[in-house]
Amino acid sequence: MRTHNSRRVDPLKKQAEHGATGNDFSPMAPPDAYAPPAMDKVSAEEMHPFLRQFVEEHATFIEELKRFEEALLNARRNGITKELYQRLTHFFGWFDRDFIRHSRREEVTLFPLLRRRLISNGEHGKGEKPETGVDLMDDDHVKAVQTASVILNFLELALRLPDERSRLLVFDAALEQGVSLAEMLRLHIFREDNILFASAHRLISSSEFDVMENNGG
Fold first, then answer.
1. pLDDT number for residue 76
2. How is the chain split into domains, by residue range?
3. How confident is the model at residue 34 (pLDDT cuts 50, 70, 90)?
């Protein structure tokens, strides 16, 4: 499994430099990650239905994240209860069912061609192995699964520990990881909707999207 290297060249910096705007910035590491400098924005209505489906699914994901964050906040205030545990496990059921299936569709149908187009268009890092925004999103998928697995293991361990102090420490660690996961997924969705899918809209033809849609999109 790949691990994240924070020192590598930002793969979407090249997209900003060689894309439609020509601005010299990295949209993946701006002062405010949710307010990158102006880029050519593409609305969901302008996108091919294949891409639009991903955006619409992201909107439902944001609602799941809101409920998850509310459960985390309540757990911090009131401790773990049966109801809160059920709300947390509901989130992980959704994650395992919907988020992973959604991510897999992106990886199989969209990412391979988009990565090739970004590389051929010069929108990649300068390392020995060209890295693009697709690689960063792909890494996010892996890290999200890893983090979710850690949280579940912590929660299950906390429920089994007889010592109250140890149980609270493990539970607190699970909550911290939960907050990190929610923040990671929010930023991941923002970057796909506002940066990666805009690149796909620009670099991939409607007929090529039709093929993706017919092949499992």
1. 85
2. 48-125+135-214
3. low
Query: % helix / strand / coil in the chain, to the nearest 5?
Result: 70, 0, 30
Distance of alpha carbon 118 from alpha carbon 67, whole angstroms: 36
Token pair 């405010």 is found at: 32
Q: From the centroid of its chain, how far is CA 170?
A: 26
* In contact, 182 and 20? CB cutoff 8 Å: no
**One-letter amino acid of 161:** L
Distance CA 105, CA 212 (A): 10
Question: Is residue 29 predicted with pLDDT exceeding 90?
Answer: no
User: Contact 195/133 with Cβ under 8 angstroms?
Assistant: yes
Long-range contacts formed by 117-122: CB under 8 A, 24+ apart? 117/199, 117/203, 117/204, 118/14, 118/15, 118/199, 118/203, 121/18, 121/203, 122/14, 122/18
Q: What is the pTM of this model?
A: 0.81
C-alpha distance across the termini of the chain, in Å = 25
Q: Torsions phi, psi of 4, nearest 5? A: -75, 135
What's the CATH superfamily of 48-125+135-214?
nmb1532 protein domain like (1.20.120.520)
Residue 13's Cβ-count burial label (10 Å; 0-12, 13-18, 19+) is buried
